[in-house]
Description:
Helices cover 17% and strands 46% of the residues. It has 766 residues and is of the alpha+beta class. The two termini are 68 Å apart. Residues 1-17 have low confidence and may be disordered.
Amino acid sequence: MGKKNIALFCLTAGTLLSAQKITNIQFDGLVHLSPSVAREVAGIKEGDSVDVSQVDESVKNLYSQGYFKDVWVEKKNGTLIYHFKEKSAISNIKVTGYGSDDDGESLLAGAGIKKGDMYDKRLIARAKKSMIAKIESEGYYDTIIEVSKKKINDSYSIVFEVNKGEKIKIKKTNFIGSKQLPKSEIEANLINKESSFWSWIPFFGDSDAHVDQLQYDSMRAKEAYMKEGYIDAEISKPLMRVDGGSYNAEVNYMVKEGRQFKVGEMSLAQNVAGLDTKKLMENFKLKEGKVFNVKKMRMDMEYLKKEVGDLGYAYAKVAPNFNKDNKTGIVNLQYQVVQGQKVKINDVLISGNDITKDRVIRRYIYLAPGDLYSATDLKDSKSALGRTGFFEKIDILPERISENKVNLLVKVKETQTGSISAGGGYGSYQGIMFNASLSNKNLFGTGLSGNLGFDISEISTSYNMSITNPRVWDSEYSLSTSFFVKDYEYIDYTQDQVGGSLSVGKRFMRHLYASIGVSYIDNQSEMNDGATIVNDFLYMDQYTKTSMLAGISFDNTDDYYTPREGFVAGVNGEFGSFSGDLEPFETKFYKDYANMSKLNAKFGAYYGMEDMIDYDLIMRFKLRGTILNHADDEKVPTAERLYMGGVGSVRGYSPYSLSPYIIDPQTGDEQRFGGDSRGSGTVEASIPISEAAKVRLTFFADYGTISANEIKGLKIINDSISRSSVGAQVEWQSPFGPINLIYAEALDADTEEEKSQFEFSMGTKF
C-alpha cells in the first residue's frame, strides 16, 4: 500500500479507535470488481461493529487483489466509503523476435500474461522470467528479453522483444561405465543426442539441446538397458557442460549396468470370472528363458487390463511381482490382477468440437449411458472417430463419478476438413497434368461429404461433383450421388462421356458396410486419325450404359490418413447393359455390344512397428484386382476395358499407358485394346521426417499385370503384360489435405511405353 492511501486512512481512522456499528458500505471507483465481490473480499457487512484493525485488514484484502494503485477508506455517520484508484489495463501485448505470431501467442500463454490484465511491474517481471526459462529449455543460451511499454489513453501496450541468443549444440554424449550396450542403442530414444553425419539435414538429425528434457533422458537411457534385461541398471542425472565461446555442449552420464537377467517362471494371479488363465498366458509377449524386456512386460500388462476391461472393470490394476536371483541371473515374474468393481457408463461428455455437431460424434461412440464399460469398445470408438478424418487428435477417457459409474470424456481437436486440393505431374504422353477440387468431408459439421473438382492435362478435361451422407437421419444407412463430364483424347481416339450414379448403403456390425446403386453413362468416341475398319471398330463407340452397382467393404483401421493398424478390404461389382449400334462392324467381328460384369477387389494391411523396434516405421501391403466378364461373341467398348499405370496401380508409368495391343490386319499397326483382367500389389515402408509438420517419407515397390482374352479375327500382341517399379514419396498431411510427392523408376519398361517419373496427388487414402 502506498504512502498516500496510508496517510488518508490515518486521517479518518481516529474515529474508529473503538468498535463502532456500520450502517452502510459504499464503493467509489470500482471497475473490475463488482460491489458484491468487494464486500466479500473486504469481510465487513452492514450491521457489523468494527474497529480500526478490522478496517485496516479490509483495505489490505482489497489492495491484494492486484487491481488497484491505491485503496483508502473514510467514515461518515456510520457509513464506510472505500475509495479506489485502479491500475491501468494492458490493452495490447506482443512478442517479437521469437518466431511467427502463433509462436508468440504460445509463448505468452505459457507466461501467464494476457491482454486485459492489470499492468503490474511484478506481473511483467514474472512473465519475462517465465519466457526466458521456456526459451532456454529449448536449448538457447544467453537469452535476453527487452520489455517496452507505451501509454495509450488509460492503458498500456506492452512489447516483449526476444533475442534468443545462441542455440546449444550437443557435440558429444558420454555414458561413463557403459560396457554391455552400444552407445547408439542407449542414445536411440534420447531427446538430447550428439551430432551425427545426418545432423546437418533438416528433420533427419537433431543435435540441438533441449534442456527441459535432460532430466528425463536418464530415464530413457535406463529404459534401453531394461529392454535388454539389465533390471538393476542405474543412470545418473546428466551433467551438461557448455562452452560459452562456441555454444557447443558435452553431456555426461554415469552408468552402473548390473547383470543381465533372463525370464524364469511366469505366472498369473487372477480370479476374474470369465477369464482363462492358461489362454491369457499363451498370449504373453514375455517368454520363459528369454532375456527380460521391460517393454514386453508393459505390453503384457496392457493386454491383461484390456481383457479385464472388456468385462466391465474400467479400473482394473495389473502389478508385476519380481523375484530376482542375482546369482543365476533369473527373474521370476508374476502378474497380479486386481479387478475392482464393474462400472457402467453414466454419460458421454464431448468437448473440443467447435464445428462438428455432438450427434455426429456420438455416431462413432460404441458406449452409451447405461452400457457396461468395455476396453475394446472404447478403443474401437477412438479408431472409428479417427477413420472419419474429422479430427487431428482424439482422447476418450473414463472419469469415475462413483464406485460403479463413469463418465466418458471425449476430447477432440478438429482438423481442416474443407480444402482446395491440387495435384499434377508430367508425362511425355499426357504432358503437364493438373487437377484441383473443392472438397469437405464434414460439411457444416454434419458429417456430409461433398466434392467439386476438375482434372486437366494437354489431352484431357473432366469435371465431377459428388455428395454423400454416410448416416441418413443418424441411421445406419447412407446415400450418395455423383455426376461427371469427361473429355479424354487417348493416343488413338477421343472419348466424351457424361454420367452419374446414385447409391444406398448400410453398415452391418462395426466394420462391415454394403451398398447397392445404379449408374448411367452416355459415351461418344471417335477416331483421331488414320481411320481403318479396325480403328473404327475399336474406337467408334456410340452407346449408353445402364449399370447395377453392388459392393461390400471392411475397414477397421485406426486413422483416416495414416493408419498404423488394421485392414481395409472391399469388393465392388458392376453389372452393365449397353444400348448402341455396331454396324457396319457386327458381321466382321462381333454381333452386338455385350452385357458385361466388372468385379473390383482391394485389400490393404497396415502394421506399425513401433512396439517392436521402438521406431515409428509403418509397413503397408496393398493388393488391387479387376476382372471383366462378357460373352466372347459380344463387344465391350474400348473405353470400358482395363488399363494400367500411374497412381493406384504401377507408379512410374503414365496413367492408362499399359495395355495389350492388337494388330490391324489392314495396316499392320499396333493398337491398344485394353485388358480383361488386371492386378497390382504394393509394399510400402513409411518413416517419419517431421512429426510436428506431419511429414513422412515412404519407400515403395509396385508390381502389376494386365491381360486380354482372344479376339475373334484379330491378333493380340503382349496379351499378358507384367511391369514393376520402385520409388519414394513424401507424404505431407497439410492444412489443405494430404499431399503426396512421388518419384518412381520403372524397372522393366519397353522402349515405346510412356513413363512418368514425377507425380503428385492430393486427397488419396488407399
